Input
Amino acid sequence: QVQVVESGGGLVQPGGSLRLSCVVSGRTSNNFGVAWFRQTPGKEREFVAAMRWSGGSPRVADSVSGRFAISRDNAKNTVFLQMNSLKSEDTAVYYCTAREGWHVYYHLTSSYGYWGQGTQVTVSS
Output
């Protein structure tokens, strides 16, 4: 079975950086899509970044372009979300997710079947 576990959230000052980690275990092949979404109270889960496990097709949301980056470490079965120049509006629960294969609608939650428990990121002065 595929399991997704995020970690690395915490409290950070505006302008600071944080790196989230997501261990994706149980993959049967490298034909996988992985992504990060975030959610705040009263809002639907929104797309942050996605990529193919193979390393292709990296995508980031316009709201975080130039500040966030997605990457992975094959040896550790881990996908990362590097967050720089953090703003208060980046405060949210961040979720890691995965799917078998790749979907053109990589930015929609409905495209993914495996979800982590979420990790809280709080940006505050």
The CA atoms of residues 10 and 121 lie 5 Å apart. The mean pLDDT is 96.
